[in-house]
Amino acid sequence: MAQNSRHQVLSSLQVLPSHPLDFYYRDFILDAEAANRTPGTIVYYREKLTVFLDFLKRQGITEPQEIKPSHLRAYLAELSKTHNSGGVMTFFRTMRTFLRFLVNQEVLETNPLEKIRVPKVDLEPLEPVNLEHLQAMLDTCDKSEMGLRDKAIFLTLLDSGCRAREFVALNVADLDLATGAITIRKSKSRKPRITFAGRKARRAIAAYLRLRGDVKLDDPLWLAYHMVDGDGETNRLSYAGLRQLVRRRALKAGVPMPGLHAFRRGFAIFSLRSGADPVSISRMLGHGSLGVTMRYLRQQADDLAKVHQEHSPVGRLKL
To answer: Which of 78, 196, 281, 316 has its CA at 20 to 30 Å from residue 204's CA atom?
Structure first.
C-alpha cells in the first residue's frame, strides 16, 4: 500500500465517531478506500454524504433503520431549493450508493430509496467558457514565470479537454511537445488515455518551461508558487490552487469567473463546431459512453440555425 493511502486509512480508523450515524459513515468511507476508489471519488463521497447525514441528524435520526422514504423526499426537496436539478442528482447518487452499502452490510433489511422516484435532470445546454472573457484573462498574463504559467494553463485546459484533477496531476513527461500528445495517467476511470495540445498551447508551455529552467521529466508540469518570508517556495499546483488562479485572473480582467469544467465543455463544443466528430471528442474527453458526451454537445440556437441554413431542404429548391 502506498504511503499516502496507508495514511488515509489510518486517519479514518483513528477518527472517533461522535454520533451513531458517523459509525456507518466511517465504515462506508473505509470500504471505498479499501476498494481503491480514486482520491477524487473519496472526496466526492465525503462532501455529499456529510450533507445527507447532517440532514438526518437534524431530523433526530440516530440509526439507519429509522430512515423512512418521507425523510428522503424531504431531503431532496430541501436540496432543490438551493441546487439545480443536476446538483440534486449528484447528492442523490451518493445517497443511493450509501444506502445500498448499508443493505449489502445487512444493516438495513430493505432500502427506503426503493420507494423514491429518481429526480429528473433538466437537459439544458451546458455553457462553455466564454472566449471573449478568456481573452481578457489572457491579456492580464505578463512575461513573468507565473504569468507564462497561467497563460499556458488557460490555453492547455481549453485545448486538451482535461478534467481539472487530471490536469494538475500531469508531469512534464506526460506531454510530448513535438506532437502535442498528452498522456492522462490518473483519469477518473483509472484508464489511461491520450488527448492533445495544439501548436499555440505548446508554444505557451515551452515558454513557461524555458523560464522555469532545470526541468526534470518527473517534475509536475504545473507548479504552485508560494511566498514564505520573501523566499519563493514551489510545489505541484493543486485543484484548489487552479481554481484560485482562475479566480484571480478573472477578477483582474473584470470578467465573471469561469468554472473549471467550462474549459472542458468549451473543448467539446468548439471542437464540434470546427468539424470534429462526436466519437473522437468522446475518446479525448475520456467519457465512458457517447451519451455523456452528447450532453456536452447540446447545441445552442445559433449552432442549429447555421446547420439549418447550410442544409435546409427548401433552400435547395429553385423557386
So the answer is: 281
Residue 187's pLDDT band (boundaries 50, 70, 90)? low
Residue 124 lies in a domain: no
CA atoms within 13 A on the CB side of 134: 19
Beta pairing, strands 223-228 & 193-196: unpaired
Single-letter residue type at 35: A
Q: What is the chain's alpha carbon radius of gyration, rounded to the nearest angstrom?
A: 23
Domain count, the chain: 2
Q: Is the pLDDT of residue 117 over 70?
A: yes
- Quote the distance between the C-alpha of residue 210 and its chain's center: 29
- 159 alpha carbon, distance to own chain's centre: 16
Contact 55, 78 (CB under 8 A): yes
- Residue carrying the nine cell digits 479566480: 247
Best CA proximity match to 241, nearest among 218, 220, 213: 220
User: pTM above the 0.85 mark?
Assistant: no
Domain that holds residue 245: 131-306
